[in-house]
Write a structure and sequence with these properties.
The complex is a heteropentamer, with two copies of chain A, two copies of chain B and one copy of chain C. Chain A is an all-alpha fold. In chain A, 74% of the residues lie in helices and 3% in strands. By secondary structure, chain B is an alpha/beta fold. Chain B is 32% helix and 24% strand. Chain B has a six-stranded mixed β-sheet, with helices on both faces. A four-stranded antiparallel β-sheet of chain B has the order 2-1-4-5, covered by helices on one side. Chains in contact: A-B, A-C, A-D, A-E, B-D, B-E, C-D, D-E. At the A-D interface, helix 6, helix 11 and helix 13 of A face helix 6, helix 11 and helix 13 of D. The complex binds adenosine-5'-triphosphate (ATP) (2 copies) and magnesium ion (2 copies). Chains A, D: Its main location: membrane. Chains A, D: Keywords: Cell membrane, Membrane, Transmembrane, Transmembrane helix.
Chain lengths: 319, 264, 312, 319, 264
């Protein structure tokens, strides 16, 4: 029995992890600058925004949904929190609360449309993607906001371990992954998320309020997008109305690279972290190698396929 | 066991359920007495599953009334029925295939950890759930090696045992089983019958849908015969012959043609 | 004959440059009593979206169309069709290829804008050997190529000519090239990775000012913001303010509001009198720098703020 | 029995159709220029490229797959056919064959990775999306190609019915929809596409070579993308290396608006046509109304949700 | 019916199939003679479904050999088995739920239209398929109103009838049925037994997996008893008692303890 339990995590995370390791080994042979703690701290910092968005995305995908609006909601949250602080002079905590409040509201709207009106998540979030984008542009007048109170930026500050400067936001991201991992594994609502994604009808028949589970997931995702807004503001030092345009595909890619099934019910959140790191490592490593950007795109395309193929093979091996 | 003086635990009057042009239930009545095993039999498509889906809140009937302990109830969802203590094994096995046996057994009523961890953080006690699962499944004498195996890796009969064990373990008021022994071997089938008896002896009434006549005659206190979306008759297995029962079921005979003492 | 209808098609919705352009056009249209329709491609480079917008505007009765072509060549056949139906088409900001495809062009010269900051950067570095990083737009975008190549030319490095869509400089002292998509966060990521590759970078060319701000963030985090010269293009109000703050050393300023207002005025004129405008009108580029250097003409931040986006 | 058969199409197409009608009625009240045959011919012309891409996308989604690479493959096809004609001076038919050959090859690669290596379609096509984009940029040198032989442009020419100029490409699109509709309904391979999407395991067990069906679908999709390349070249009169960047989401939107399930096995191809038209009608109608483009995005977001909600309600009604 | 001198149609030696740590088949042997109905019985999880999945190409065994008419075969997929004329009803009902009954019946071997339309364009003859479906289902006396109904709208038993009808209609060589009567009513169950007999009388051997002992004893020529992934014994239902059979099945008795004439 024990040996079976101990076998569960690998199937979900070993594959992506092997792919990540292979990528690291490859880049280490290509550039001596790659394998430094400073460089890894940097990669962590670069993936923190998409990493936190991908937590929300994983939750939604685990329920067999998908969220195209995540990046735009994150951008809106960033604009709201910076604009509230800059224009109305509210204190950082209040402004942050406003920003996260808005992203949570959008999560709630997504959730209500999915559960109450029973629309497909793809369509709902395609709609709210456009809506959030338009509101962002209108509210910000397409202008970047730069007078940001320091209280909103400290997640972008660094602390040192030895020579390595690590940004607080990266620590927050890792902490969130840990919390969500435990919540999904060890709590009743967490298990219900898997159950809903695995077999919605069976879950409903066991008497679980599937609508509430789904709604909760979308709302939580909104909260994570709000935290990602804050990280994005802290990282760039600005409220940027053009942020978030590619984050939806990036986040979904991280989730899928991490081994979570787009059909719901199967996957491990830590895989998503690994997936996000794979993307970050590719981008960083290829730049260090001096690969020009068209070739970077080409290589990324090939490597994405190879990474998942590795995953596939290592799973077969595990069986 | 069954006694006309026993109060009615569940009752339904004139249930109608239509799917497009198909009328699955066509004014079905239903009565379940306290402490009895009521078998529901009928041809394929007679509306048995539709009937118990209505009783368990899985579908909302188009017309008709349902009473629980004499009170009119309106189940809008399985959650309502669950709350009222009604536990159901569905024919199409409501299990989450990718989740483990233990998780499936406790789905929706996980055992929480003691203290804050359980009450505030809703953390589950996996160890205890595992132990309990082993105990429950041992009751059914199913040879499953590991409770942490995903349900999708089980054989058809093993899967059915999971669903049966779940219902038996948690029912408070009424247990409904839609063909629980259909996929079971001789030994396992007998274990389930034994389990049903034990549930009844705890005082809970059981509704058992089955096509297995020997099983039905062995265990039922009364037999509800469904036909064409209606209740054709309720008979007493102690008094009626198997062939007469089948005759009513297939429409070869009507309830009026039966000897009065056969009816229950 | 009713209110003149004028269509404005920009590359995207979201670039402040085009937002300003639209504001300028709106204000001018209101002043002159014209109706302005506006549309944009979905992304920078979305030629088909611009073609669709052009057709829809003609269906809505527009007799003048102002367009900032996303793709200078690919848009030409659609413009030909429009002009064949008597519509006056004016290119704003960037020319079509060939230039004569439109009735007129009101634009700044992006190559020239690049040259100016190239010259400035050369002078600002003094005799120091340059270690250059460039934060470009994205592959295949003509404006990205023109500014980049203009910068190399101005800096005195071998560079492709203004028509090329390829980024030059790979072999000539540019140690790192990264795509910023004109975006702050991606600019920052690009700069971080470039610094990782070569920590001695002392000159950063950026496609626009948001990318420059991102690059500055990365440099600051590495404690190098004092040692590196950042140059950029656009001259937006936020960008000029950044020049004032010392974030950006110099930027080439362009005047979208002016282009748009001129375009609308020409459209109204055409509707009223039937007279078309023609030829190329340079709406000007100016170098804005906090610290002027000898040999390169520049304006100060105060002037830059007054003129930003072409306010006046 | 007859009444049941006659009930099948509505459930799939009536909903989107109602949404389309409502949109048309609305725009007709807002602009007197909307309700003209010329304007409808225009809309048809504007949706023809995405419409043909969406045929391939529908086939893939019916098998429970998804294709993110469709737009980029289309762009690559356009570049290949124009460049072959312009640079090597080959005749239009040969050049077109080369272009469609390349898109078909990409379809084949997608299909092989999905069937033989068993990778999820999302990842495969995310990879080939990047690969096709990079090849397009490298091969074209990021230059638009404009010296196009006339033989490649005639699908962009118009013929007149009364006052209305209709473009040949639109007729081709309608014809393709008709053919695919019949093929899916009336031929054995067509039914197998549904079966594979509906229950791959069951289909395999009935002895259908599911891999061959899938491979065929991806290859066919590649052919449709090639035809879309030709339409795109004919419509814009240029080989554009930056084409196709948003066509993947647009095509998926058309498919989903048209009532096809992203989980495979359920849907009707004509719904996709209606879905594509809904998008075209919105864009056209809003421009005619003079709605500025940020507001257009906002309105589109809301309308996409409303359109599918209408669909949902009309289905409930039909039951 | 069954005669030791009849040639072996299908034979398997030492089949092994492992799923991770679970060994579903542990060196199972198997023999099917021409023109016989061979019942396969065993506890839940005894490896019956795994055995027939190996015989029908649905899974590839890890070890062991399969012979068809004395020829070694290597089924890599169900298509191979199909081509060899082996038709199977799987326990987990291989049907496409969103497709109609008629389509499911003919899935993979649709009737083509005559002429070019059928041969070149592969167009199917829906009308003919509909008529054929009605005929087949009438054989089973299932009261299904419309063949253009989606299978997902059918009752459990009705669905099973679709799968059974399909196998019976198309088999050329061997018919394998994994618990075909499990969800069926008395009448429908008897129809299926009748159908199995008719198939056998056409000369095709039938492998029938069932937990229903009366059914098995009524119809089988020989009974293959599966236990713990192996073949425990093959017995003759004419000679052995039901209780001895169950004893072997559950391991209470071994094959050696049986009277020799019971073995077949
Ligand atoms: N979701 C549905 N949509 C359409 N028709 C349905 C649906 N569910 C059930 N039916 C129809 O209703 C009738 C009764 O079905 P039901 O499942 O209640 O039968 P049953 O008595 O349980 O049969 P069985 O013994 O085969 O399980 C059948 O004819 C079936 O086709
Ligand atoms: N895909 C799988 N993965 C893991 N284990 C499996 C899988 N399929 C079957 N098994 C295991 O193999 C054993 C034999 O299963 P099988 O389905 O052959 O039993 P069976 O004799 O058909 O039982 P039943 O009468 O309940 O249908 C069971 O213990 C089951 O858990
Ligand atoms: Mg039933
Ligand atoms: Mg089995």
């Amino acid at each position: 029995m024990n040996s079976l339990t101990s076998k569960l995590p690998p199937i979900g995370t070993l594959g992506p992890f092997v792919a990540l390791l292979l990528a690291c080994v490859f880049f280490a042979t290509q550039s001596e600058r790659f394998l430094t703690s400073q460089n890894f701290a940097l990669i962590l910092q670069q993936v923190m925004v998409v990493g936190v968005i991908a937590i929300g995305q994983t939750l939604i995908i685990l329920t067999a949904g998908i969220d195209l609006s995540c990046g735009m909601i994150m951008a809106l949250g960033g604009i709201v929190m910076t604009k509230v602080a800059a224009d109305y002079g509210l204190s950082a905590p209040v402004a942050i609360a406003c920003g996260i409040g808005v992203t949570t509201l959008f999560g709630l709207i997504n959730g209500l449309l999915v559960t109450k009106v029973k629309l497909p998540p793809f369509i709902v979030t395609l709609g709210t993607l456009n809506i959030a984008f338009a509101i962002t542009q209108l509210y910000s007048n397409s202008q970047t906001i730069t007078d940001i109170p320091d209280g909103m930026l400290w997640l972008g500050n660094t602390f040192r371990i030895g020579d390595t400067a690590i940004v607080w936001g990266a620590i927050l991201m890792l902490f969130l992954y840990l919390v969500v991992w435990i919540a999904l594994r060890e709590t009743a609502p967490g298990r219900h998320v898997y159950a809903v994604g695995n077999s919605p009808e069976a879950t409903r028949l066991t008497g679980i309020a599937t609508d509430k589970v789904l709604l909760g997931v979308y709302v939580m995702a909104g909260v994570f997008y709000g935290i990602a807004s804050l990280l994005s503001v802290a990282r760039t030092g600005a409220g940027d109305p053009n942020a978030g345009q590619t984050e939806n595909l990036d986040a979904i890619t991280a989730v899928v690279l991490g081994g979570t099934s787009l059909f719901g019910g199967r996957g491990i959140i830590l895989g998503t972290l690994v997936g996000a790191l794979i993307v970050g490592v590719f981008r960083n490593g290829l730049t260090l190698m001096g690969v020009s950007s068209v070739y970077q795109i080409l290589v990324t395309g090939i490597l994405v396929i190879l990474a998942v193929a590795t995953d596939q093979l290592s799973r077969k091996g595990a069986r | 066991m069954s006694d006309p003086n026993q109060p009615l635990v569940m009752q339904a009057k004139g249930l109608v359920k239509r799917y497009g042009q198909v009328t699955a239930l066509d004014g079905a009545d239903f009565e379940l007495r306290a402490g009895e095993i009521l078998a529901v039999i009928g041809d394929n498509g007679a509306g048995k599953s539709s009937l118990i889906k209505a009783l368990s809140g899985a579908t909302v009937p188009d017309e008709g009334e349902i009473y629980l302990d004499g009170q009119r109830v309106n189940f809008r969802s399985p959650i309502d029925a669950r709350r009222a203590g009604i536990e159901t094994v569905y024919q199409d096995l409501a299990v989450a295939p990718a989740m483990t046996i233990a998780e499936n057994l406790f789905l929706g009523r996980e055992i929480r950890r003691p203290g804050m961890l359980g009450s505030v953080f809703q953390m589950i006690d996996k160890k205890k759930m595992l132990q309990e699962s082993i105990a429950r499944m041992n009751d059914l004498k199913v040879g499953i090696r590991s409770m942490t195996q995903a349900v999708e890796t089980l054989s058809g009969g093993q899967r059915q045992c999971v669903a049966v064990a779940r219902a038996a373990a948690f029912a408070q008021h009424v247990v409904i089983m839609d063909e629980p022994t259909a996929a079971l071997g001789v030994k396992e089938g007998n274990m389930v019958l034994e389990l049903i008896r034990r549930v009844r002896d705890k005082g809970l009434p059981v509704i058992l849908i089955s096509h297995n006549m020997p099983h039905v005659f062995e265990i039922a206190d009364r037999i509800h015969i469904a036909r064409l979306g209606k209740r054709a008759a309720v008979v007493n297995p102690k008094k009626i012959s198997m062939s007469d029962t089948v005759a009513v079921m297939t429409g070869a005979m009507t309830a009026e043609q039966l000897a009065p003492e056969c009816l229950a | 004959q009713g209110q003149p209808v004028i269509g404005l098609i920009t590359k995207t919705e979201t670039n402040p440059f085009f937002v300003k352009m639209k504001e300028g056009a709106d204000a001018e249209a209101r002043k002159l009593g014209a109706k302005l329709l506006s549309a944009a491609g979905k992304t920078d480079g979305d030629n088909a979206g611009q073609v669709t917008a052009m057709e829809n505007m003609m269906a809505a009765g527009a007799k003048t169309i102002l367009i900032t072509p996303s793709d200078s060549k690919a848009i030409v056949p659609a413009i030909k069709k429009a002009r064949a139906q008597g519509v006056m088409v004016i290119a704003l900001d960037s020319p079509t290829d060939p230039l004569e495809a439109t009735d007129a062009l009101f634009a700044t010269n992006n190559y020239k804008a690049g040259e100016l900051i190239g010259q400035y950067a050369k002078a600002a570095l003094g005799g120091k050997p340059a270690v250059i990083a460039t934060l470009d737009l994205f592959p295949g975008h003509p404006v990205g190529a023109q500014r980049h190549n203009g910068f190399l030319k101005g800096f005195g490095l071998p560079a492709p000519d203004a028509k090329s869509n390829e980024l030059g400089g790979k072999a000539a002292g540019v140690v790192c090239m990264a795509d910023s998509f004109g975006d702050r966060a991606k600019g920052q990521t690009g700069m971080e990775n470039c610094l990782q590759k070569n920590p001695n970078i002392n000159l950063v060319y950026t496609i626009n000012e948001p990318a420059a701000a991102g690059a500055y963030n990365a440099l600051k985090a590495a404690g190098k913001e004092k040692d590196v010269v950042i140059v950029s293009v656009d001259g937006g109000c936020a960008g000029v303010a950044d020049v004032g703050k010392g974030v950006i050393a110099a930027t080439s300023q362009q005047y979208p509001l002016r282009m748009a207002a001129m375009g609308v005025a020409a459209g109204v004129e055409y509707a009223r009198t039937g007279k078309k405008v023609s030829g190329y009108t340079d709406t000007g580029v100016a170098l804005i720098a906090a610290k002027p250097v000898s040999g390169v003409e520049s304006k100060d931040v105060k002037t830059g703020m007054d003129l930003c986006w072409g306010n006046k």
